[in-house]
Design a protein that fits this description.
Layout: E1 5-6, E2 17-22, H1 42-49, E3 53-56, H2 74-83, H3 90-100, H4 102-105, H5 107-119, E4 123-128, H6 138-150, E5 155-162, H7 172-186, E6 192-200, H8 213-225, E7 230-231, H9 234-244, E8 256-260, E9 268-269, E10 278-281, H10 290-297, E11 313-318, E12 330-332, H11 341-347, E13 352-357, H12 358-367, E14 381-386, H13 401-411, E15 419-424, H14 426-429, H15 436-460, E16 463-467, E17 505-510, H16 535-543, E18 546-547
Helix pairs in contact: 1-15, 13-15
The protein binds 3-phosphoglyceric acid and cobalt (II) ion (CO).
3-phosphoglyceric acid is lined by residues 23-24, 73-75, 134-135, 165-166, 288, 428, 432.
Domain Metalloenzyme: 16-546
Binding site for Mn(2+) 1: 428, 432, 500
Function: Catalyzes the interconversion of 2-phosphoglycerate and 3-phosphoglycerate.
Amino acid sequence: VEALKKNPNWKKRKGPVVLVIMDGVGYGKYKEGDAVADSKMNHLDAITAKSPHTKLKAHGKAVGLPSDDDMGNSEVGHNAMGCGRVFNQGAALVSKSIETGAMFQGQAWKEIVENAKKSGGAVHFIGLFSDGNVHSHLDHLKAMIKQAKKEGVKKVRIHTLFDGRDVGETSALEYIDPFEAFLKEQSDGSFDARIASGGGRMWITMDRYGADWSMVERGWAVHVHGEGRQFKNAREAVETYRKEIPGIIDQDLKEFVVAENGPTGTPAPIGAIEDGDSVVYFNFRGDRSLEITAAFEEEKFDKFDRGRRPKVCYAGMMEYDGDAHVPKRYLVSPPSIDKTMGEYLAASGVRTLAISETQKYGHVTYFFNGNRTGKFDEKLEDFVEIKSDVVPFEQRPWMKCADIADQVMEAIPSGKYDFIRLNFPNGDMVGHTGVYQAVVCSMEAMDLQIGRIAKVVEGAGGVLVITADHGNSDDMYEHDKKTGAVSLKPDGTPKAKTSHSLNPVPCIIYDPAGGNEYPHKAGEGDLNEGLGISSIAATCIQLLGFIPPVDYDRSVLKM
Ligand code: 3PG
Ligand code: CO
């Protein structure tokens, strides 16, 4: 891309533009369960009161999802903020590709099917087992199973990663039962489709950003080797673990292997992955797909001992990394997100710092840059990762927000950066645990850090843009869809909601020094209304003294 045009009237600020992304922090629709409103956030409240602010849409079509019933998520949210426009995202592209038949005419699918037919082996499907539409959708899986049968595949094995994070926290059986019925319907003398292994998505396989490779190792053991505790079927596994570990939610369920009829009378796994088999990892979202893909694809691999590594034909649902071109084979092309803000800023000589802790590090780098892991310009960009704790986050709800703030507070007055973007994971990572008190604690911890950062921005003559990628902590209880009443557990306490919300998110422009990009007044109504989070890109570009690209979505600043 070309350098951005300078705004000739721009009055340069002394300090940098600091973009704070409060992951999973929206404006709640219901009073009950809105842990954001319920927290003491004196700093954020004070900043909001004295700054122009508005609400931005962060779900559904505003972030490229199929419909406005789809909650936002970090991938599409950071894509939108970083790319300044809305692209049709994975969920929509995969559905379309199945609908038009393009997926099944593609080379990758043909190879998957041909390989299994030639070897007489199985086609394995591994992925997130829900209709959350954040990483995957069961309809995609079902369509592929039907098509495999139609094309003469004889054996299919499914490796289910229970969700409870993008869907109801204990909903696994609601997915298993109808799916087993579907498999039964499909199976006949010449087609044999079964669930073979699985476990909770936060316990096996779906780690991200190298936070905890032991998850992938446990997944590899059950999916590939069929090594793990044995059960008759998935339902039995779920019921057993729920009984043994009271209060356990689906995302944390332990691993299982379905076994029966072993040669020596002892049960044998029904779906270990063998030489000659085909494997489809059916998640379309990349962050939690890259590690298991590396285990299947990489010749040299040192994250854990893979033991026997079957020779398989492997495909991912999408290309997960557009820089490194991973995986080698994929079923659907990802959105071609081009001309990102990061690329423009690098072309314009803007010095940038992107920082978060492990759990969201890739969000402010990889997702923000349109699903590319690399930098646009080594000299202009610094990416900083602070190691996340490897603990259930309800035990440490403050996470690393203070450490992130420390580094940002050093960077702001250093004169080294024009643009600093950071992500505070608290609202999202703790929100996903469903533990209300921990969420309140996480919000208050984050607020302290926002107060510290705001003070340094003031001193340095910078400007602070505070926003979020989607809601989560603002909606911590399940509500009846029709009446809106809080859903209760048998013991009368509210049923926790662990997934994201459909709520709008804040956009606050705290500009103590005052620029001349927009009328500098306090209160609501000073900013353009009714926009989505894709407007954050043009907003930051304006605050940095440039004119946004013409095809970018409108900034919130009234010029
Ligand atoms: C996850 O991957 O943790 C959830 O499915 C979505 O959360 P995120 O979009 O906030 O990362
Ligand atoms: Co989340």
